[in-house]
Amino acid sequence: MPRTSAKPPTPLPANPVDPGTPGRYRTVTGEYDLPPVRLPGLFLYSVTSPVHRDELAEELDALCQSAPVPKNSWRWVDTAQYKLTQRGFHRAAGAIDLLVCATAVHHGHTVLHVDNDFATVAAVLKEVRQRDVRA
Question: Can you give the pTM of this predicted structure?
């Protein structure tokens, strides 16, 4: 069978938006300023009954101040995932767990938990302070 040369594809028209040209949106740096929100589906997952849930939610509200998530936290999460992967713990903690760690590290807080994932993260990432409240 004879070989035929393929024609190059027709070039697409140029995009009218130049990424090097400032747009109409301003750039903001710093922390997000959002009202605190408790996410019971994430942080009260380990409850054993409705009464236990109410008790734990009340304790968390009394003990823990809310902290804004820093805008650069996803960079920290990406670096953390890389370091965990290098040590063979790439499935040790999910994105939300790492986002909690990033926020805690940024604000100098200790992560209180009932979850072995945070202990694993802290073993690899020494800047993460954690405490298992089951102990």
Answer: 0.60
Q: Length of the chain in residues, anyone?
A: 135
Q: Which amino acid is at 46?
A: S
10 token code pair = 């027709």
State pLDDT tens for residues 2-56. 666 667 777 666 656 555 566 666 666 665 555 555 544 456 777 888 898 888 8
CB of 93 closer than 8 Å to CB of 121: yes
**Three-class SS state of 132:** strand
The encoded tokens of residue 50 equal 């409705």
Expressed in angstroms, the distance from the first to the final Cα of the chain is: 74
CA distances (Å), 89 to each of 13, 62, 73, 128, in order?
45, 33, 20, 15
